[in-house]
Write a structure and sequence with these properties.
Blueprint (H helix, E strand, L loop, with lengths): L6 E3 L4 H10 L4 E4 L5 H6 L7 E4 L9 E4 L2 E5 L4 H5 L2 H6 L1 H8 L4 H6 L2 H7 L5 H8 L3 E6 L2 E6 H4 E3 L2 E2 L6 E8 L6 E7 L9 E10 L2 E10 L9 H10 L3 H14 L10 H22 L4 H5 L1
Helix pairs in contact: 5-8, 10-11, 11-12
The chain binds flavin-adenine dinucleotide (FAD).
Flavin-adenine dinucleotide binds next to strand 2, helix 2, helix 6, helix 7 and helix 8.
């Protein structure tokens, strides 16, 4: 099938793009890498009056490190993130998550801004943004605002972005030095969207856990932050018994959907198995000094 007819605009600046979005009163769509939008157009599941192509807007593709944060421009390709030395050093969880996004040609076109704005609950970037405690910078006719992950994701493929707003930057605090981390997921074939995924970050020392972060992909309409499971590790430490208890608690905390890919029970079981797997690997990669620095 071919897309329904649409107007096409290729603005040169963010302001021009926002003006175009406002002019179409909610009937225009931004085009970034096109890896999610173009299939939707071809199936006519999306029939916008206009496409506003961001690919000629200068200055939206960058990875900068400053003052303990990494700032990534919305149009930065997933492939650039995968190979960025800054991301590997400061945000190794994001580097690992990126290798799990689709296939090489998809990551060569797909952007971080497009993935977050698309808000697929099974995608890796919404989960990584939540696990890393990041923010997005959004611009529109009423100015700029900064949103935490919990303020951005609203439901299945739904964000709190207004129709005339665009995501311009992603801001992520650098991970603590020596933090253990892992992104574990299960999908039917390599490169498919995850049926369930788990991002884990652990900071600790000598079997103690100073802080833990556990977030799901695919186990609900938005990434689920498993705070009550993290608390078990922070209270009981990083023993195998504590990891097992955390994994069981994680499964109790999710309310996943049943669909053609998997039943809710299967996803709940995957949440338990993958939480355990992600935590064991995160603990293995933990540097002995990380908890001392984290206090
Ligand atoms: C075969 C296949 C397998 C895939 N597998 C995975 C996978 O395993 N994991 C995964 O995470 N993704 C996967 N993807 C999706 C891929 O990661 C997309 O690149 C991503 O979801 C969307 O990014 P994009 O830049 O292509 O955005 P587009 O497709 O251009 O846009 C997606 C949506 O975001 C909006 N948008 C884009 N940029 C902005 C912005 N700056 N501000 C506001 N709104 C914006 C668009 O209007 C549109 O609604 C797969 C895609 C394909 C085709």
């Amino acid at each position: 099938m071919k897309p329904a007819r649409f107007d096409y605009h290729a603005p040169a600046s963010v302001d021009e793009a926002i003006t175009l979005l406002a002019r179409y009163g909610g009937e225009a769509k931004l085009l970034a890498g096109g890896q999610s939008l173009v299939p939707l157009l071809n199936f006519r599941l999306s029939r916008p009056a206009a496409l506003v192509d961001l690919n000629r807007v200068a200055g939206l593709s960058y990875i900068h490190e400053a003052a303990g944060h990494v700032r990534i421009g919305a149009m930065t390709r997933q492939r650039a993130i995968e190979f960025s030395p800054v991301v590997r050093r400061r945000l190794p969880l994001l580097a690992e998550a990126t290798t799990l996004v689709g296939h090489l040609p998809i990551r060569s076109r797909g952007t971080i801004g497009g993935s977050l704005a698309h808000a697929d609950p099974a995608a890796e970037y919404p989960t990584a943004l939540t696990a890393l405690g990041g923010q997005v910078v959004v611009r529109g006719p009423r100015g700029e605002r900064t949103l935490e992950a919990g303020e951005l994701f609203q439901g299945y493929l739904t964000t709190t972005l207004a129709a005339d707003e665009m995501l311009v930057e992603v801001r992520l605090p650098a991970m603590p030095d020596g933090a253990g981390f892992a992104f574990e997921e299960f999908s039917r074939r390599h490169g498919d969207f995850a049926i369930v995924g788990i991002a884990a970050i652990v900071v600790g020392h000598g079997g103690r856990c100073a802080s833990a972060r556990l977030v799901t992909a695919g186990a609900g309409p938005i990434p689920v932050h498993l705070r009550a499971a993290e608390e078990i590790l922070e209270r009981e430490g990083l023993s195998e018994a504590a990891v097992e208890a955390t994994a069981h608690r994680a499964a109790e905390l999710v309310d996943p959907p049943s669909d053609i890919h998997a039943s809710a029970d299967y996803r709940r079981n995957l949440t338990r198995v993958l939480t355990g797997r992600a935590l064991r690997r995160a603990i293995q990669t933990l540097s002995p000094a990380s908890g001392e620095r984290a206090g």
